[in-house]
Design goal:
Layout: H1 3-29, H2 50-53, H3 57-61, H4 76-95, H5 98-102, H6 106-132, H7 137-155, H8 177-199, H9 207-219, H10 221-246, H11 256-282
């Protein structure tokens, strides 16, 4: 991997992160013209220019304030742009053969487009959850439908090489991509649904059910299962730290970010994690 390729992916990601921040806000407010109307300050409604929209740097140079009304801008937005850039960069680093991509290999181009699209959807629902404690159906439902259609088409024998990371089972039926994915999706879905029923919706919300489907459709059953375990592990540690810091047991903590973090850690490092776990307990 050359620094040029990774840097390009990072910059490309920050640009999409900037677009994601606009998308998140307009989904929330119901504002039309996501693709056509110009960006504006939500406080003073002043149309923003290039100086206001350059990812990360605009926030730093403007001191975290609107250039016109001086209203403070939430630091969540530059963090969103930075996170998107990092996720795009890691997706290219882990999943893409740069040499083949630069030679014009259509398979690598398709894979890159797929993984960047998945990363973008992930960023949108994670930061929507952070900001508003909700999951945006406007993004996740279409994404899940598209993923299911792609998996169904691949399962018919049509070569779309974007689910090659699915880990196999010994049973041939379970190795059919759409069945592998649905096994993971509905396994996590059922696990969440039982918790919702038991707690009356206090432990988690219905939006997490859509994330459950997304995890299985993106990663397949085995990787999604590890992602779920990691999400609960990370969530419990960070949640305890937050509760100790705030000393308020009624503090609501969005679970979407932990699910996304668990999903991507398992996508990137499934084999090393499983190998470490196996070796660690073999020497006890």
């Amino acid at each position: 991997m050359t620094p040029f390729f990774l840097t390009s992916l990072f910059i490309f990601g920050t640009l999409f992160g900037s677009f994601a921040s606009v998308l998140i806000w307009r989904i929330r407010t119901g504002e039309w013209g996501i693709m056509t109307s110009r960006s504006h300050c939500p406080k003073c409604e002043h149309t923003l220019g290039v100086l206001d929209l350059f990812p990360i740097f605009s926030y730093v140079f403007l001191g975290g304030k609107c250039r016109f009304c001086k209203e403070k801008i939430s630091p969540v937005y530059p963090f969103l742009e930075l996170s998107t850039g990092i996720l795009f960069m890691f997706s290219g680093y882990v999943f893409i053969d740069q040499t083949q991509l630069f030679l014009g290999n259509h398979t690598e181009m398709l894979k890159l487009g797929f993984y960047l699209a998945v990363a973008f959807v992930t960023i949108v629902f994670v930061f929507y959850d952070i900001l508003f404690m909700e999951i945006p159906d406007e993004v996740l439902i279409p994404a899940n439908i598209i993923l299911f259609i792609l998996l169904f088409v691949v399962s018919l024998g049509i070569n779309i090489p974007v689910f090659e990371h699915f880990l196999p089972f010994s049973n041939k039926l379970l190795n059919i991509p759409v069945i592998n994915a649905l096994l993971g999706s509905f396994g996590i879905f059922l696990f969440f649904y039982i918790q919702i029923l038991i707690s009356g919706g206090k432990w988690m919300g219905g939006g997490d059910l859509r994330i459950a489907l997304f995890m299985g459709l993106v990663a397949g059953a085995k990787i999604a299962a590890l992602g779920l375990l990691l999400a609960y592990f990370l969530g419990s540690i960070i949640g305890i730290i937050i509760l100790l810091y705030k000393r308020d047991r009624n503090t609501e903590i969005p679970f979407g970010p932990y699910l996304a973090l668990g999903l991507y850690i398992s996508l990137f490092w499934y084999t090393p994690i499983v190998d470490w776990y196996t070796n660690f307990f073999s020497i006890l």
